[in-house]
Amino acid sequence: MKRLSRICFITGSENIESAVPLILEAGIRWVQYREKNKTRREMFFDALKLREITRNFGVCFIVNDYADIALAVDADGVHLGQDDLPIKEARRIMGSRIIGISTRNVQEAVEAERDGADYIGFGSIFLTTTKEDTVLQGLDALRRIRQSVKIPVVAIGGINTDNVKAVFDAGCDGVAVSSWLLRGDIKENARRFLSIIEEVQR
After folding, report:
1. What amino acid positions are annotated as catalytic residues?
2. Average pLDDT over residues 101-112
3. With the CA atoms of 144, 173, 133 and 10 taken in that order, what torsion angle do they form, in degrees rounded to the nearest 10?
4. Which of 25, 100, 135, 136 has its CA 20 to 30 A from that of 157?
5. How many distinct helices (H) and strands (E) make up the chain?
6. What are 32-51's pLDDT values in tens digits?
7. Which CATH number fits domain 7-201: 3.50.50.60, 3.20.20.70, 3.40.640.10, 3.40.50.720?
8. What are the E-state strand segments in the chain?
9. Confidence grade of residue 129 (pLDDT, cut at 50, 70, 90)
């Protein structure tokens, strides 16, 4: 299983050829494909492009929601939602590939670990405009999640260079970022994130 990085860039179809190569050139080593507005066929071809790009950079590539698409493009894993395929069933399909799942509370996190998830996503830590149906969780909730499970916890939602250190201080193992990296100089944004995370690791 490919090792997860400390920062994940979540991308939709609109940023595949424009932003993803720049972000990977800056040093980010984990890309997740999340798309809600395309057909499964269209998503397959988007994921195929991303697999080629991420393979050229030697980085981890995860597909959101669909284990069949993840397998079809030879992705490193799949990230599930609570309404997607159960983890145990996904494991039968995915074998030793990475399986992550979004969680909203301690019970879901504990169940995810019990069922064999490799990591959990938790959020929204801060306010975000990326998803309309988010529930604000905050840093205290992140600390409770971290204390409840032993598998990696990836924080998501409104994370930027001003607050990312506080998120790691709360105990997360990684962060997922989307829109903030795309504002202005993409490479510089990615490098700033990475430099802060390097400080945290020291």
Report:
1. 34, 102, 131
2. 97
3. 180
4. 25
5. 8, 8
6. 999 989 999 999 999 999 99
7. 3.20.20.70
8. 7-11, 30-33, 60-64, 77-80, 98-103, 119-123, 153-156, 174-177
9. low
Cβ(174)–Cβ(4) under 8 Å? yes
Q: Which two tokens stand for residue 98?
A: 């990475």
Please state the domain extents for the chain. 7-201
The count of other CB atoms within 10 Å of the CB of residue 87 is 20
Structure-block tokens of residue 198: 């390097």
For residues 151, 50, 95 and 156, what is the CA-based torsion angle, rounded to 10 degrees? 20
Q: What is the pTM of this model?
A: 0.94
**What number of residues does the chain have?**
202
Beta bridge partners of 177: 9
